[in-house]
Write a structure and sequence with these properties.
Order of helices and strands of chain A: HHEHHHEHEEEHEHEHHH
CATH superfamily of the largest domain in chain B: Thiamin diphosphate (ThDP)-binding fold, Pyr/PP domains
Strand content of chain B: 15-25%
Number of helices of chain B: 13
Oligomer: heterodimer
CATH topology of the largest domain in chain B: Rossmann fold
Low-confidence stretches of chain A: none
Strand order of the largest sheet of chain A: 1-2-3-7-6
Radius of gyration of chain B: 19 Å
CATH class of chain A: Alpha Beta
Low-confidence stretches of chain B: none
CATH architecture of the largest domain in chain B: 3-Layer(aba) Sandwich
Number of strands of chain B: 14
Shape of chain A: globular
Distance between the termini of chain A: 49 Å
Helix content of chain B: 25-40%
Number of domains of chain A: 1
Distance between the termini of chain B: 43 Å
CATH class of the largest domain in chain B: Alpha Beta
Largest sheet of chain A: 5 strands, parallel
Largest interface: A-B, 50 and 43 residues
Largest sheet of chain B: 7 strands, mixed
Bound molecules: thiamine diphosphate, magnesium ion
């Protein structure tokens, strides 16, 4: 799969790939091949793709519990990613991480993180290392609107601004933290919080990959120039549930009309309008073929041996005592 | 013969590692000035980029160290208060410690966390007197509690060189200890116990500053009971083979541990000995009481800490 994300068709193609990935993953959750469920990214694809389109291959990202889009946008192999979700040895993390921890460090993906807000300081640390090494690498940390209420994220914005770290805070404001609307969870505004730390902040249309890419590109340029962090608030929406467990427990916390209204602003439709029908068809067919092959690869891959359950626990290779006998 | 103080030993270890390895750096509050003595003179020598003062944002700078470690650095963090290890349990236990496994072995997180002045500092009351090494051992984070200056040096060096996150507790009760150092200071392997005094009747396992209490108790009992003083030095991973060896000689066990009693290290040592080592008498332990909070008044603070007198009676009781 190409990692380049330059042309309108490539932007569309990557978003289509993410959508196709999520739809495939949803079916595998239903069939029981993926246990534990997933937090689907459907509806938010433009954010991951627009931001990653502004990054170089050796730039870095940290991701969230809703992380499939980020990981794929940064270039991870969909087949190994799907194998990871299915807990197979061929997965990105050898089946040890699953949906919420997918990582491919070689591609600059320092991992999805299941704790809200927790990846921000890790990204800042990577940015600090980059600054010290004068490597020019920039780090993006994705987080949701809910993450704005984690103290550690606010601490991190302060450190990043003080030390002019090449880190970009990307807030995916999808309007909800699980079931809690942002209006009941956030005092002040997201961008004003960043500005309070002296970090320039901007709100962009999170459904438009091209808008996001331009805003991200400006932030990347600023970070590479040594001018420090930026903050992007991307206004977006998840079309599906917070988590697939909502397929079993019906929750009502969003008006149906609201969901419908946002669906009219599908980021794929917005981007499709910028390419030819033929380009679109080709991209759709390519994504479908990639995911069909990925599904086959994932489901044909071996399950890990239970005897190896605690492999990788210590980088030093240390082994603790077992739990029996 | 030079007398080496515990604080100086830690300072030397940091200086030597900062000199040896460019990727080592120190982060913490007031480390530039060297308020806790560990970093005295280091900022002047290595610059503020490598010995870096941080704002009071422990959660952020603890995970910042993780991110830097993922990118090839070897940060050392100094914490001002032992209870800050409760504040950053998320960042150490749930993030740094879990990264190697969760990524399927893609990364290592070589970060060292140093807590100078752990345990009671006498008169610092409830929120400055904790000794949470059992919590970190329970989670599976490499945890060392040196009792002697030479071990403080050697274990801090090994911690910094280790590819796994490692917590170094430097007990307040040991920080004043000085040691005659006749040989070069060398790295001390993690996970290896040290017998400070050989004995044949009772093995006394003591942790950190309590090693000095155990040595004093063994001295008091000399002629009456022959006490072997066993210092694990590393509480996780614990040196079980060395303990089994010692119990082969003595068959009796007393543990002195500055943890609360329930789910503390002493309980683990007793259980492990009972499961598979030689015991000819029921073992005993001297610990802080269950779930204790250290009260302020000096008499109360001391009443809650494991005491030498209690150790002496525990040793006598296992001899009966
Ligand atoms: C610190 C923390 N608290 C609670 C949770 C449980 N949780 C998982 S996702 C989530 C909502 C996060 O909302 P937001 O940051 O807006 O991201 P979104 O799910 O909308 O993408 C919560 C509360 C968690 N993972 N981490
Ligand atoms: Mg949200």
């Amino acid at each position: 799969m190409t990692r380049s994300l330059n042309t309108p068709a490539e932007l569309y193609g990557r978003m289509r790939l993410i959508r196709e990935f999520e739809e495939t993953a949803l079916r595998l959750v239903k069939s029981g091949d993926i246990v534990g469920g997933i937090h689907p990214y459907i509806g938010e694809e433009a954010v991951a793709v627009g931001v990653c389109a502004a990054l170089a291959d050796d730039d870095l990202i940290t991701s969230t519990h809703r992380g499939h889009g980020h990981v794929l946008a940064k270039g991870a192999d969909p087949a190994r990613m799907l194998a990871e979700l299915a807990g197979r040895t061929t997965g990105l993390n050898a089946g040890r991480g699953g949906s919420m921890h997918a990582a491919d460090v070689g591609l600059g993906i320092l991992g999805a993180n299941a704790i809200v807000g927790a990846a921000a300081p890790i990204a800042a640390g990577a940015a600090w290392a980059s600054q010290r090494a004068r490597s020019g690498r920039v780090v993006v940390t994705f987080f949701g609107d809910g993450g704005l209420n984690q103290g550690v994220l606010l601490e991190t914005m302060n450190l990043a601004s003080l030390w002019k770290l090449p880190v970009i805070f990307v807030c995916e404001n999808n309007g909800y933290a699980t079931t809690m609307p942002i209006s009941t969870g956030l005092a002040g505004s997201a961008v004003a919080r960043a500005q309070g730390f002296g970090i320039p902040g901007e709100t962009v249309d999170g459904m438009d990959a091209v808008d996001i890419r331009s805003a991200a590109a400006a932030a990347v340029e600023r970070a590479r120039a040594g001018a420090g962090p930026s903050f992007l608030e991307c206004l977006t929406y998840r079309f599906g549930p917070h988590h697939t467990m909502e397929q079993r427990i019906r929750l009502s916390y969003r008006p149906a009309e609201e969901v419908e209204r946002w669906r009219l602003r599908d980021p794929l439709v917005i981007q499709a309008a910028r390419i030819t029908p033929q380009e679109r068809e080709e991209a759709d067919a390519r994504a479908a073929a990639i995911l069909a092959a990925a599904r086959e690869f994932a489901l044909a891959s071996p399950h890990p041996d239970p005897a190896d359950a605690l492999d990788y626990l210590y980088a030093s290779g240390m082994r603790g005592r077992g739990g029996e006998g | 013969m030079a007398k080496l103080s515990y604080a100086k030993a830690l300072n030397r270890a940091l200086r030597d590692e900062l000199t040896r390895d460019e990727s080592v750096c120190v982060l913490g509050e007031d480390v530039g000035a060297g308020m806790a003595q560990l970093t005295l003179g280091l900022q002047a020598q290595f610059g503020p980029g490598r010995v870096m003062d941080t704002p009071i944002s422990e959660q952020a700078f603890t995970s910042l160290a993780t991110g830097a470690a993922l990118c090839g650095m070897r940060p050392v963090i100094e914490f001002q208060i032992p209870s800050l290890l409760f504040l950053v349990l998320e960042q150490i236990a749930n993030q740094a410690h879990k990264f190697p496994l969760m990524t399927g072995g893609q990364v290592a997180v070589p970060v060292t966390y140093v807590v100078p002045g752990s345990g009671s500092r006498e008169g610092w009351a409830g929120q400055h007197s904790d000794h949470p090494y059992s919590i970190y051992a329970h989670v599976g984070v490499t945890t060392v509690v040196p009792a002697m200056p030479s071990d403080a040096y050697g274990l801090l060096v090994s911690a910094i060189r280790s590819d796994d996150p490692t917590v170094v507790f430097a007990p307040a009760g040991a920080m004043g200890v000085r040691e005659d150092v006749t040989r070069d200071l060398v790295p001390v392997p993690i996970g290896r116990a040290r017998i400070h005094r050989a004995g044949t009747d009772v093995t006394c396992v003591a942790v950190g500053h309590l090693v000095h209490e155990a040595l004093a108790a063994a001295g008091e009992l000399a002629g009456e009971v022959s006490v072997e003083v066993f210092d694990p030095r590393t509480v996780y991973p614990f040196d079980w083979p060395a303990l089994a060896d010692s119990l082969e000689r003595t068959g009796r066990l007393v543990v002195m541990d500055d943890s609360n009693r329930s789910c503390g290290l002493a309980g683990e040592v007793l259980a492990s000995a009972a499961e598979g080592m030689r015991l000819i008498a029921p073992p005993a332990r001297v610990t802080r009481p269950d779930g204790s909070v250290l009260p302020f008044a000096l008499g109360l603070d001391r009443a809650v800490q494991p005491a030498r007198a209690a150790l002496v009676s525990a040793i006598r009781s296992v001899m009966k």
